[in-house]
Amino acid sequence: MKMLAKKIIVKGIVQGVGFRPFIYRLAQQYGLRGTVSNNAHGVEIEAEGDHTSMQLFIHAINRSSPPLALIDKVESQEIDYKGFNDFIIKASNGSDERFTLISPDVAVCDDCLHELFDPNDRRYRYPFINCTNCGPRFTIIQDIPYDRPNTTMSIFPMCSDCKREYNDPANRRFHAQPNACPVCGPTVTLSDIHQNIVVADDVVRHTTTLLKAGKIIALKGLGGYHLACDATNNEAVGQLRKRKRRIEKPFAIMIPDITWLDRLCEPNRQEISFIQSINRPIVLVRRKDNSPVGNEVAPNNKYLGVMLPYTPLHHILLNDAAMPLVMTSANISEEPIAYKDRDAFERLSTIADYFLVHNRDIHMRCDDSVGAVLNNRQTMLRRSRGYVPYPVKLNIHTKQPVIAVGGHLKNTFCYMKNEFAFLSHHIGDLENYETLRSFTEGIEHFKNLFNITPEVLAYDMHPEYLSTKYAIESDIPLKIPVQHHHAHIVSCMAENNLSGEVIGVSFDGTGYGPDGTIWGGEIMTATPAGYNRIAHFDHIPLAGGEQAIREPWRIAFSLLYNTFGNDYINIDIPFIRSLQTMNALPVIEKMIRQKLNTPVTSAAGRLFDGIAALCGIKQTINYEAQAAIELQMLADEHISMYYDYDIDTAATPWKIKWQGIVKNIVDDLQQEIPVSAISQKFHNTMALIISDTSERVGKETGLQDVILSGGVFQNVLLLEKSVALLSQRGMNVHTHSRVPPNDGGLSLGQAVVAMNKAVNS
Ligand code: ZN
Ligand code: ZN
Ligand code: FE
To answer: How far is the C-alpha of 440 from the C-alpha of 580, rounded, in Å?
Structure first.
């Protein structure tokens, strides 16, 4: 038989994911000889064998690669036949490892799961079982190269059994850095809030007894602590709300297995595959009307945030409990999630009744990721645990490494090197010392992990953002301010591989405008280097500034006052009647008239808030965007009518007038049209405004690509209606998927804008 020799290069995310042992096993399977090694570009294989085996081998590389690998390209060429005797894994030489991609933390694999519940396996019910294909990564890595001494597993010397697996190329645990077993690895303990150990034969089983009795458990997980309680027990959930000071913001739940999803929700196929992916995000799924998980978990919300167990500890706990558990980040209101043991006991002892902890340290805090199927696409709403630090691969290539420091709310930062954008884990709202520290430490950590020395720094134009202040003090030579809504648009362009000129619709709650007003209802033409503001919503006065955001009744009043002037007082609707009983009325009227502490905004998000308050849905809120969300949740999706609106094209930029909408809604309210219908008509109208205006811009400019970005497009009703109308009119619509439409995706846009501007500076 004629023998053949080939050099095969596999590019993509193929290092540190068990790729070489995978190739080794494949080569054994097909009787090939040669070598496999890592090089600067990926994995390099020299293989010798007969023609058919070679073909099958190359085919199998693509078809059955390890779960954590992401193959970009497999290139092969014929080379001289050397006559190898066997197939070996060549050690990688150190210098090649300088830019290794690091795996995120992913869910337990099926093989490990099988062992976990096999009474004859040596890791039966062992909460830290893992292998090359699964387990902790990003959260335990302290330094590179990714070897056990550089992880928080370094304090656990492997026993001889574990070591044998670790050193055997044919074993699933070959070079699995966190490899451990009950003999040598981390252990779990249960204690009360005073750190007194609770003695039990099986602490996890005992924990489920406590959960069933309505207790709240602080549970140390992968990227931080969770607070857990029985999701079907309204009293327990209510208690958790009270102690955590989280009044109405929905809690996520963890279900024992996928069959529970059907019991609680009405999932579609995309949602099921999203929930089951190895990244294990929380996925928002429409809940059933008579779901056993009550309104207390997600008040006034049509959706439930659901996830499957992702660590072995979760699997054991949920398997024993056999019921859905609330599984929410352990913090008080908006503080960052607790992840260090001492800190957790200090901060959580007023919330939890018991602590189920373990002795493997979490090096990097990492919140759960959140996703939803929007417009038929699996879309990230928070990209964190399970995804980070995998890069978002772009079709552009930066010559100078860039860092973008993100926004103020839902902060992430982003490093860009070559064709990779390394978005950080969810840092949170940069409002307190803890989050700021997590931001600065994160920036240093990523810099070290990926060996990046940024030459360009991108930041938001808002002078008061802590991220901006950090940027100003940095000693990176080239600093580039980026307008908030431009960054949103470019973020969406980058993930959709667009680099030309587009029509950008950027709707959110707030963002700094260079004209001194607050922007957030912007329609622009944009390229990655610049933008032109074509249209925006007519200004809405925010009486009391920030206070108006927390008290949407102030916005509703502004809308009425700007539409009807002093006649507002004669309108006979419940909102006005309720205002008349408040003493605040003369004060707020004066504030608006005299423009006292009343900045103006063009933000679409504020219009949603104001309309919600006007309809009597929510006068004050206790979590971000609550009024707008509850307005969306009420909508009767069968209604297809619209309200009147005007667009003033004589103005530059064009002004989208909402006064007609307010008039129509007041009419509807006076005629006692149900709020469910009003809500839907309002959503329809907003979608119509988007498509009308985009079409008009398209006719004048010849542009056909429309980008929808900004936090408002988390609203599935608005997003899907807008996409439908725009498509009907022949526009190409682009939405987010890999990075969030909200400010969590801002840093990617900032980085790409700065990269483009840096080239020209
Ligand atoms: Zn595994
Ligand atoms: Zn062991
Ligand atoms: Fe924003």
So the answer is: 48
Contact, 86 vs 47, CB < 8 A? Answer: no
CA dihedral 459→461→467→470, nearest 10 degrees, is 80
Residues 353, 239 share a domain: yes
* 403 CA to centre of own chain: 19
Domain assignment present for 98: no
Listed as ranges, residues in the chain with pLDDT below 70 are: 40, 92-100, 333-334, 761
Domain count of the chain?
A: 4
Does any domain span residue 165?
A: no
Question: Do 599 and 540 lie in a common domain?
Answer: yes
Q: Look at residue 467 in the predicted model and tell me its pLDDT.
A: 97
In a domain, 520, yes or no: no
pTM: 0.94
Q: Which ligand sits closest to the CA of 161? A: 2
Q: What is the mean pLDDT of the chain?
A: 94
> What values do phi and psi take at 42, rounded to 5?
155, -130
The structure tokens listed for 410 are 């839902």
Structure confidence at residue 333 (pLDDT): 66
Orientation angle between helical segments 51-63 and 19-30, nearest 10 degrees: 150
pLDDT at 97: 44
What integer pLDDT is reported at residue 381 of this predicted model? 98
d(CA 718, CA 685): 9
Retrieve residue 427's tokens.
Answer: 């840092």
Between the CA of 259 and the centroid of ligand 1 the distance, in Å, is: 22
Closest ligand to C-alpha of residue 180 is 2
Residue 371 alpha carbon to ligand 3 centre in Å: 18
Task: Report CA(172)–ligand 1 centroid distance (Å).
Answer: 8
pLDDT of residue 553: 97
Structure tokens at 517: 């007003």
Distance 382 CA to ligand 3 centre (A): 14
Q: Do residues 750 and 694 both lie within one domain?
A: no
For residue 618, tell me if it sits in a domain.
Answer: yes
- 198 and 337 in a common domain: yes
- Ligand 3 centroid to Cα of residue 286, in Å, is 26
Expressed as residue numbers, the domain containing 681 is 536-734
33-39 sheet: strands from edge to edge: 70-78, 3-13, 42-50, 33-39, 87-89
Find the 162 Cα to ligand 2 centroid distance in Å: 4
For ligand 2, the distance from its centroid to the CA atom of residue 761, given in whole angstroms, is: 56
